[in-house]
Amino acid sequence: MSAHSRPLRILGTGVSTPARWIDSAELDTRFGLAPGTMRARTGVTRRGLEPTRNAAEVSAEAATAALRAAGLRTDDLDALICANASHDQAMPCNAALLHRELGMHRVPAFDINASCIGFLAALDLIGSLLASGRYRRVLLSSCDLASRALDPGDPDTFGLFGDGAAAAVLDAGDDDDERRPALLAARFETWSDAVHACEIPGGGSRLTPARYVGDYRDVCTFRMDGKRLYRTAALHFDRFVAELLDEAGVGLAQIRRVVPHQASRLGMEHIFKRLGLPRDRIEDIFAEHGNQVSASLPTALHHALSEGRLERGDIALLLGTAAGVTLGGAVLRI
After folding, report:
1. What does the alpha-carbon distance between residue 84 and residue 189 come to, in Å, rounded to a whole number?
2. pLDDT over 70 at 1, yes or no
């Protein structure tokens, strides 16, 4: 077992079902594009949309499904953690809002924000909390309603992203077998020279409505320089993955399945090419969901687990990039 290893078992996962699916043909009509244009531009066939529910409500659906899959109730939890990139309001934290939606009492609730790879950052922290005995059982949820911050006049971003939530119930397991479920390694690197390549400038104390001259909606809209993001991540990707696998004490041949953040068609193609693995060993749900921001990777993980592509004892490589720019990865023995 790797020196970086910590016991971590997935007891159950769940995802939300969007209130509505929007297919690319509908967006072609909306933007006055020739049939097939949106699918060709983005690689997305359909994406989920939540017109009315807030993130806490959508998260509650995924969390309830994860608890059901684990055969547990909220009373069985020691902590609730939300790892969203965006939030229902500036304060309190979204975990507290989800806590109320689930009807919980006393159990501590707090947020972790690492943008698109919040779920990975939370796994790393939870692994340490479980290993130390601080908590026994944790509910982790990631949710983003990307549609709320998109420019409705920009077909490229509006067609790329989808709304959704995913959740997992985690514990340290109850056996001492060397092959027990574990977080074998986790690694993160931030390259902040590209910090403004992906952002929503408003909503914080730097740009308040009183300090901004103009239409405040302009700075509350998602902005992305996709090419710069890609270049920054691609520059470090090969070394990053090699060092992560080395820390985990495994080789790529031992990886049963790669579960990446479903960032974009270009990003997925880069992973296929750089890892050199058969495509059927890489979880790819991008065309059917789009980029769900923080919910993207855990949604892909849920599908891999619930549909039998990952089973007990398998080793999974989880990878993602996020605003910042941050690279993140984890090696899990399921």
Report:
1. 19
2. no
- pLDDT band, very low/low/confident/very high, at 270 (cuts 50, 70, 90): confident
Dist. CA 58–CA 92, nearest whole Å: 17
| Domains defined along the chain, listed by start | 6-171 (3.40.47.10), 182-333 (3.40.47.10)
List the beta bridge partners of residue 316.
257, 332
The 8 Å CB, 24+ separation contacts for 103-110 are: 103/74, 104/74, 104/77, 104/80, 107/74, 107/77, 107/78, 107/79, 107/80, 108/78, 108/79, 108/80, 109/79, 109/80, 109/81, 109/82, 110/79, 110/80, 110/81, 110/82
Distance CA 18, CA 237 (A): 32
What pLDDT is recorded for position 231? 87
Q: What is the DSSP string of 251-320?
A: -GGG-SEEEE----HHHHHHHHHHH---GGGB---HHHH-B-GGGHHHHHHHHHHHTTSS-TT-EEEEEE
- Report the alpha-carbon angle 14-18-23, nearest 5: 125
In this structure, the strands spanning 20-23 and 46-49 are antiparallel
Catalytic residues: 116, 261, 291
* 3-state DSSP assignment of residue 187: strand
CB atoms within 10 A of CB 312: 11
Q: In this predicted structure, what is the pLDDT of residue 52?
A: 97
Three-class secondary structure of residue 321 per DSSP: strand
**Cis ω on the peptide bond leading into residue 298 (within 30° of 0)?**
no
The mean per-residue pLDDT over the stretch 192-221 comes to 90
